[in-house]
Design goal:
36% helix; Rossmann fold; binds 1,3,4-trihydroxy-5-OXO-cyclohexanecarboxylic acid; aromatic amino acid biosynthesis; DHquinase_II_CS; single chain; 19% strand
Length: 140
Amino acid sequence: MKILVVNGPNLNMLGRREKGIYGDVTLDSICEQMRALADGRCELEFFQSNHEGDIIDMIHRTDASGIIINAGAYTHTSIAIRDALLSVSLPIVEVHLSNVYARESFRHKSYISDIAKGVIAGFGAKSYLLALDWFLGELA
Ligand code: DQA
């Protein structure tokens, strides 16, 4: 089983960006923590892009069995990423490091939540681990 982990714009800046909100953790460290949790029980493919079309192309070409996605700000704006996710009919878990519902109102709208199996927000790097844990239980 393979899980595709998609990270959208500005998530490559974790560890440097808005540390008061996102903390010190880097994207590399999150990937490492996920690999350690998977411990060979599933294959993980990591993809990060700051470009909407590249994220859509990656979703179209994936051969994974499920997708963990933090679309960053595109979460709140991108009907195109929503449509790409719908086009591949895979189980999706939406993740956010921060609790978007405790932040600005423009972050309360997600174009992904209602087509996802579930949404995990507010637990920092652990949001990704909780999402992976669900996949490990569900698809093993
Ligand atoms: C984020 C929340 C988004 O609102 C923001 O644009 C991000 C990160 C999060 O992980 O908390 O880039 O997706």
